[in-house]
Design goal:
alpha+beta; Aminopeptidase; two-stranded parallel ribbon; 2 helices; 32% helix; 10% strand
Length: 77
């Protein structure tokens, strides 16, 4: 089985958006994933986060329409 990298909780502060920071973070993650011979890098975003979706697709990410993602809440706040 090939290694996969999961990019969790990518967040760019509002005052730093539209300056290339998000793209730089993803490119660094992709570089590290390549260094470990990972097969792919995956991430998720909110359905209504169209700005992030546009960025991800511009980099080459492909929207996964084959799988649902589930979450089990263990602790409530």
């Amino acid at each position: 089985m090939k290694r996969a990298w999961i990019l969790n909780d990518l967040f760019v502060r509002p005052e730093h958006r539209n300056k290339g920071g998000g793209k730089a973070l993803i490119e660094q993650g992709a570089s590290l994933a390549r260094d470990t011979e990972a097969k792919y890098l995956t991430l998720s975003t909110a359905f209504d986060n169209l700005t992030a979706q546009k960025l991800y697709e511009s980099i080459g990410f492909v929207k996964d329409e084959d799988f649902f993602h589930y979450t089990l809440i263990i602790q409530s706040i």
